[in-house]
Amino acid sequence: MTAPTGAQPTTGTPTATDDVDARDTLSFPPPADFAAAAVAHDDLAEAAAADRLQFWADQARGLLDWRTPFTRTLDFDDAPFAKWFDDGTLNVAENCLDRHVRDGHGDRVAIHFEGEPGDTRTITYAELTADVERAANMLQDLGVGVGDRVVVYLPLIPEAVVTMLAVARIGAIHSVVFGGFSAESLRARIEDAGAKVVVTADGGWRKGSVAPLKPAVDEALEGEGTDSVEHVLVVRRGGNDIAWNDRDLWWHDAFAEADEHHEAQAFPAEQPLFILYTSGTTGKPKGIVHTSGGYLTQAAFTHRNVFDMHPESDVYWCTADIGWITGHSYVVYGPLANGVTQVLYEGTPDEPGPGRWWDLVDRYGVTVLYTAPTAVRSAMKAGRQIPDARDLSTLRLLGSVGEPINPEAWHWYRQVIGHDRTPVVDTWWQTETGGIMVSALPGITKLKPGAAQCPVPGILAEVVDDDGNRVGPGGSGYLTIAEPWPSMARGIWHDPDRFVETYWSRFPGRYFAGDGARLDGEGDIWLLGRVDDVMNVSGHRLSTAEIESALVEHDGVAEAAVVGADDPTTGQAIVAFVILTAAAADGVDRAATSEELRQFVGRRIGAIARPRQVVIVPELPKTRSGKIMRRLLRDAAEGRVVGDTTTLADGGIMAQITELM
Ligand code: WT7
Question: How remote is the CA of residue 401 from the centroid of ligand 1, in Å?
Answer without folding.
Answer: 7
